[in-house]
Design brief:
Number of helices: 14
Strand content: 15-25%
CATH class of the largest domain: Alpha Beta
Shape: globular
Structural class: alpha/beta
CATH architecture of the largest domain: 3-Layer(aba) Sandwich
Low-confidence stretches: none
Distance between the termini: 46 Å
Helix content: 40-55%
Strand order of the largest sheet: 10-9-11-8-7-12-13
């Protein structure tokens, strides 16, 4: 570790140990103050973002970033307003800390409580995502965690202005400056990933390459997902107009999002009627279709899908389409080619819906709803630090709950462990008590 990076991590660790004791009302006021300041800095943010976009233009031309990343980087008045709105939504949520999750009387005068508490220090490494700064900082502050932000080169100007704006607002409300830190430079990534003694959780937000690099180069627990290969399955009993609306929304609302649909599976019983309607709807919005042989036979203008197309996160106006003979085959396809992110079934058959919801193994499984609902704000979390496809600790959009852990607090009156051992051992009561 270079002295600068080590010192930032060490200072964040020290700040995290005091941070959780700050009253919730103080943390909430700091978040709201930062949200106000960001809106007031709108013009400066757009100017800083223009500098980043100039860098990104060169990277886009050279292939270092794709169009989806470029669009994520671009700020607008609406995006800035959305960032502030999301921060205020986080501030309005109940305090996640100090909640008694479970309370057990072990014996008279000996009570064990399971209490929610912060994880500690978060390291967030992100590419081309200005909103990662505001979402993660607000969630970290609300949940009592210190956070170290490492933006990609293409977003440094925007991230730096957002960081300094928020840090100034936090300081006005008595929040230690070291609770939120920002570092720059590619070499800092490797240094952060080596510091498992100071950092408790690393959160990469960006390309598949970034996430795989983090996975391969750290012993720190990681939260995130490698890809968002999301499917919409149109069942034989689907309302076809509903299916069109859902697929349109899932593909075209924000193609660069990880919860955008990448593949549509259509039951063969409705393929002849549905696929021409789908082609008309999506081609009017410049979506390119890549289909299986059966799809190509129905839609002459579609391209033939390669094997790789079923495994691709396009993050663009491209959609793979496959005709399947059954719900079982749709589920097999999802488990073979999906990324355990978000999957949707469109059907009016409740039995089919329940089969799909029960059998599909993904962080989000929906019935008659767009995959775009897989989002922390839409779930009522205020914001998210990312979407996790892991099955451990947190899964799906990760909000405040995913940034807390718990500890056991035991309150006694002088009890000794040896009293409960041996032939004349005193018995435990293990009586569950109300957590109210």
């Amino acid at each position: 570790m270079s002295p600068a990076v080590w010192q930032i991590a060490e200072s964040a660790r020290q700040a995290s140990r005091q941070f959780a004791t700050i009253p919730s009302v103080q943390r909430d006021a700091a978040i709201r103050s930062a949200a106000d300041a960001i809106e007031q800095t709108c013009q400066q943010l757009l100017e800083a973002n223009a500098k980043d976009l100039a860098v990104a233009d060169v990277m886009l031309t050279s292939g270092e970033i794709n169009l989806a990343s470029y669009e994520r980087l671009r700020l607008t008045d609406k995006k800035i307003a959305d960032m502030s709105r999301s921060m205020r939504a986080v501030a309005s949520l109940p305090d996640p800390l100090g909640r008694v999750l479970q309370k057990t009387e072990l014996d008279t005068g000996l009570v064990l409580e399971k209490i929610s508490c912060p994880i500690g220090v978060l390291a967030v490494i992100f590419e081309a995502r200005p909103d990662a700064v505001t979402q993660i900082s607000a969630l970290a502050l609300k949940s009592g965690n210190a956070v170290i932000l490492k933006p990609g080169h293409e977003v440094e100007h925007t991230a730096s202005l957002l960081f300094h704006t928020m840090r100034h607002s936090f300081a006005k409300h008595g929040i230690a400056e070291d609770s939120v830190s920002l570092i720059a430079g590619r070499e800092a990534v490797g240094e952060l990933l080596n510091e498992s003694g100071l950092i408790d959780l690393v959160i990469p937000r960006g390309s598949k390459q970034l996430i795989e690099f983090v996975q391969a180069n750290t012993h720190i627990p990681m939260l995130g997902h490698a890809e968002g290969i999301c499917h919409v399955y149109v069942d034989a009993a689907a309302d076809l107009q509903m299916a069109l609306d859902i697929i349109d929304d899932a593909k075209t609302d924000y193609p660069a999002a990880c919860n955008a649909a990448e593949t549509v599976l259509v039951h063969e019983a409705v393929a002849m009627a549905f696929l021409p309607l789908l082609a008309d709807r999506l081609q009017a919005k410049s979506v390119k279709l890549r289909g299986c042989d059966q799809t190509k036979a129905i839609l002459a203008d579609s391209s033939i899908a390669s094997v790789d197309d079923w495994n691709r996160e396009y993050s663009d106006l491209v959609l793979a389409v496959r005709v399947v003979p059954s719900t079982d085959e749709a589920i097999r396809h999802i488990h073979t080619h999906g990324s355990s992110h978000t999957e949707t079934v469109v059907t009016e058959d409740r039995a089919v819906a329940e089969e799909f919801l029960a059998q599909v193994d993904a962080a989000g499984v929906f019935h008659n709803a767009s995959t775009r609902f897989a989002d922390g704000y839409r779930y009522g979390f205020g914001a998210e630090v990312g979407i996790s496809t892991s099955k451990l600790h947190a899964r799906g959009p990760v909000g405040l709950e995913g940034l807390t852990t718990y500890k056991y607090v035991l309150r006694g009156t002088g009890q000794l462990a040896r009293t409960y051992q041996g032939a004349n051992a005193r018995p435990f009561s293990h009586r569950q008590l109300s957590t109210e």
